[in-house]
């Protein structure tokens, strides 16, 4: 069905289609619309889920953990401080190998209070064992949320999945949305280690170093399995619903000499910047990264990279540019820190970064000259 | 009164300290609950006494969860079981630190939401498995490793905090009175919605008592009125068993305090404070039972 929706409502519609048994809900700007919309679906009888209006995000993630370990599908959504308040339980969800799906509406962290887009929240959860996707538009928010359930619940993975979308610039803007009936695209959830009183077992008891070490390795092994499973989910999505996704979305990259690399909506703006640059005779392309964990292989081929970073590791560097530098040590990178706290970054600004690039350097937009 | 079954769900291989009355209480809790039960355990002595992976000392599934998170985990489980039409009992078994301190927010939320579960706080009046540090449940005058001079603050009245949530069933119990505990767990699990049971569990290493003394000390807590056995069903309070007699005549508090090494060095002023709190508590319970408040 073709409709229009905000990024938030697209996520809620995808969750409705995925039919979770339990949704834990706690409000936070700019995520609130997701849990409000799900509450409306449940109240109207359009969604047969148990809706748990928890008292905190720590409890939101914990309630999802409690539900998931019984073998049922669960979902929650958050932003910013909410995500950080869950931090302990994010590790728990991954360590317990629970296929929980969560939307995170990317927002900066205080102080001072700032409710606008930034990726620091998601970046700070990088090492929790969650798969993380970043999306660039409303349709992709919907499609990726659907794919997230299939990927998380795959028995070669059994890890939680976070779908990231930029606060306000995506969560609150309306675009066209085509909804689908997922049917057997998301098979029934089968959790091999679900709690069963007829087969009592201990979960998460004291564990010695050797077993602990082995369990950590199992998480990494699942992460290493995940690219094939994600690819399969993307290909099957294309086959059934006709929309194509991959680890990156590449725009005019084939003959490009300089690539703009970004996450989320900045990567969409970059496509317009590419057209502007191409019109001026500069062979630019855009490589928007969709998978953050697992971090994908990139076809950078010795080209200049202008990396846009909406999050920073103080004392080290832009997070995305650091990830790329660490994976491709010889890469020629111009690291642009831009868009923190919702700072406006236009496609003209992005075209300017490319024109004025100083390879090997770092540039703080709005601070550096 | 229901017969206490011979079936055991707490097996004979726990890694509990000698004389652990939390293990004793849990044994009767599980006898009352039966096999269709899931136990949710935050960080506490029970995380230790269940044994080391891949062994477990429990014949029911036990889900270990982070310190602050037990009630929220039970909330998710309870809703998930309900969504599948299952009647499985969801029981939190949490220590006092995990209940009155770090877990109180999740607990309050789960009670307010009417979660169908039983939350049991077994109270050894300190952080036990980390080596007896003070908690909000430590009484005045008790020495712990973080109150080497004796605690100067009052024990948090978790029961009245819970009561403010107006839940269908709430009770106190004691590991030294297992039949009463067994009955209360049965009643709690038969009552839809949230239930809360607060069990006093004397702790040999923590309270500095010999390992054959927890039952004696637990009984003395009741005889002196320091611990009162009661239950509140849909707002109606009943004082139970031996505590009924204690309302009329009780042993001097010092007979309870002097059994325990942790109260060595308690001042007369602190004993008086404990006496006053104890008297006030008994008076409030008597008034409530009589319908006067």
Automatic annotation (TrEMBL), chain A:
Family matches, as Gene3D superfamilies: 3.40.50.920, 3.40.50.970
Top-level taxon of the source organism: Archaea
UniProt domain Pyruvate flavodoxin/ferredoxin oxidoreductase pyrimidine binding: residue ranges: 14-234
GO molecular-function terms, A-Z: oxidoreductase activity
One GO-annotated biological process of the protein: response to oxidative stress
Domain Pyruvate:ferredoxin oxidoreductase core: 256-350
Xref: Pfam families: PFOR_II, POR_N
Keywords tagged on the record: Oxidoreductase, Pyruvate
Subunit and partners: Heterotetramer of one alpha, one beta, one delta and one gamma chain.
Name under which the protein is recorded: Pyruvate ferredoxin oxidoreductase
Species assigned in the record: Methanocalculus chunghsingensis
From TrEMBL, chain B:
GO biological process, any: sulfur compound biosynthetic process
UniProt entry keywords in alphabetical sequence: Oxidoreductase
Pfam families associated with the record: TPP_enzyme_C
Keyword Oxidoreductase set for record: yes
Keyword Cell membrane: no
Domain of life: Archaea
Gene Ontology MF term list: 3-methyl-2-oxobutanoate dehydrogenase (ferredoxin) activity; thiamine pyrophosphate binding
UniProt name for this protein: 2-ketoisovalerate ferredoxin oxidoreductase
Lineage: Archaea, Methanobacteriati, Methanobacteriota, Stenosarchaea group, Methanomicrobia
